[in-house]
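Database export, one record per block. Field names are fixed; values are copied verbatim from the stored entry.
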Amino acid sequence: MKTILFLCLFHLLLFSPAIDSVQAQTKSYAALRQDYQHLITSAQLQRQRINWERLISGFDNFIRARPRDASIENAYFLRARTWDGLAQASGRRADAEEAVRLYLDLASRFPHSRFADDALLHAGEVAQQRLNDQSRAIDFYRRAINDTPTGDMVPEARQRLVALSVPLQPEPVAVAVPQHPYQAIGQSPFLESIRYWSGPEYTRIVLDLSAPVVANPNFLKGASPRLYFDLVYTDLSAQLPDEVIINNGLVQRVRASRFDTQRSRVVIDLERELEYRITTLDNPHRLVVDIMGAPSRAPQVQISRPPSSAPIADDSIAGILGSASDQQPAMRIRQQSNGGGIRLIVIDPGHGGRDPGAIGPSGIREKDVNLALAKITATALRQQLGVKVLLTREDDRYLGLRERTEYANRVGADLFISLHANATTGNRAYGVETYFLNLSKTDEAAEVAARENGMTLQDISNLEAILFDLMANAKINESSRLAAEIQQSLVAGLSPRFNNIRDLGVKQGPFHVLLGAAMPSALVESAFITNPREEKRLNSADYQRHVANSIVKGIKNYAAAMGQVAWK
């Protein structure tokens, strides 16, 4: 007996430190989540399988070492999402199968988790889109509806089945909605007001809320199409009108009423079936609904104002940027990709007309260099990729920054590339760099953005706060990957032919010229016009041709990586 006790104590002493060591070395969920965010926003990191596998290993270790951690469900879900991302990046069937397996594992282990419906929906997406297995996809979508009837992904699962021409079972008459934190503390959020205005390509409806809400959107087709939202545990302000009449040939009216004891319903009656885009904004809390299409007539009523005297948040881009505009910027964002690949690219030669841009030591103007490079790039794209290419300007004319993306949105471009030449106060800086729209992360990025925007650094600081509200509308992930592919191709294409090609990398900044683009977009700084050597190159047809060919190669690599090839 003593021998047995001794052996037990020996094993405890031998292995306990090892267990503690494993737990000590395991990253926290917060750290893993930060690593995940870093990976999915970096096109360069996504290209290397080892980066995905390293993160997956971190989640595996966390799940093994901390099975009772408060974030264990989150870890299971994010691990499956990481495999999903790897499957998209690699195109391997085995990776997609593993993503499906882990999504289903989460739904099985945690059937009452808030991630269960998301996991089943994502499993269906992978089966349908990457495994080409419609039968399994239908099964997973049905499971999302039947196994998680109160999940917020259930309406989406129903829409997927409808798109697959699968008959739906009748919805239950009443569904028990799980208790929401607002109900527990007795402080329901309020729908305080409904506002709207009409732009040239969309009508924007804004629901002003006193706090964040759970909003479940649904779209009903037919002779009287309508979009409606169930705002869970949300009351209506006493001063809120029963309906707001719009009648602009696009939207008939917006109605709000109490649906039952647990939710309020907002109904948007439409003239016809239309695309829509939903965005949730904070500070103040708003639900923004963009109904896509050009109104056929002027609206019959003005913007509905909230009953209080509190200032109203201006949700137009012109208003947000603090400048008046007679025409609202187009924010036409496709709900889904058309699946046809990249067929139309808009090239934007920066500056022009009364705006010469930067001027080099010998007097070369940036606007002239940008236009020449844009024309060569457009020709190369047409010849090498067979795509349609349009320029925002084909001569020396002035265009406002917002007019450029408005044009790209209006013609339905698949990509938007803005061409520029860099500049500094001195003449020693040199190199190439590519930007995409995001919050400025460095002083250098802020300075470049301020110069291209015609703003001060203080203006840029103010713009950063604005961009928090606009991130939901920007295709950041796709844009970062596009920028990375172009930058890599520029360095690889120019280095063998020109000396002192310096790779300044991919950066992010708050550029007005990219603001509002409904498609992946990037801004290319092809060289420093303030550097005498690079000014001479920028004015050279040979350098411009190699820059153009490198941009074409970058776009081709981007399209292949994203599965968006439309050319032969």
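Remark 1: The chain is about 45% helix and 20% strand.
Remark 2: The domain at 19-163 is CATH 1.25.40.10 (Serine Threonine Protein Phosphatase 5, Tetratricopeptide repeat).
End of record.
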